[in-house]
Design brief:
It contains 5 helices and no strands. By secondary structure, it is mainly alpha-helical. Helix 2 (33-47) runs parallel beside helix 4.
Length: 152
């Protein structure tokens, strides 16, 4: 399973990310490529506890759904709503300058990976408490999902 914990997986996904252009056409969804970059930034900030989100967790989402999403080798479905604080049309960070927003995401990936297992990992808004390994798996899958959204 691919994860940001493995240097090779991290390097490959960031290479794909660096190939993204601001005029990339989406395959699904409403976000522009630049909005997606800001969404990734907001999501990574959430993962390291620097952006609060509203909990929508429940027993099913914290157990079975989390396991399926993180460990069953199927692509994530399209059209799943995100937390309002991470939604670029609601409470997400607005795009500023594409190149600097891309650099920010790369730095945040590094910051996420650098956190120790003993870090006070915040709960995921859907999946509840998550370990370092789960957050790094989620981070890889989230980046991959949105890069595929823009043909990367």
């Amino acid at each position: 399973m691919k994860t940001l914990a493995r240097h090779h997986d991290q390097a490959r996904i960031l290479a794909r990310f660096r190939g993204l252009s601001p005029d990339a056409r989406r395959q699904w969804g409403r976000m522009s490529a630049h909005q997606m970059v800001c969404h990734l930034s907001d999501s990574l900030l959430m993962a390291i506890g620097e952006r609060a989100t509203t909990s929508a967790s429940g027993l099913f989402r914290r157990t079975l759904l989390k396991w399926i999403v993180l460990y069953v080798p199927v692509r994530w479905p399209t059209g799943v709503e995100t937390s309002p604080e991470l939604d670029q049309e609601r409470g997400g960070t607005p795009p500023v300058e594409f190149a600097s927003d891309v650099v920010r995401v790369e730095a945040l990936v590094g910051h996420l990976v650098a956190q120790a297992a003993s870090f006070a990992w915040p709960p995921h808004p859907l999946f509840g408490p998550m370990s370092r390994a789960a957050w790094l798996r989620w981070g890889y899958l989230h980046l991959d999902h949105h890069l595929r959204q823009f043909g990367r």
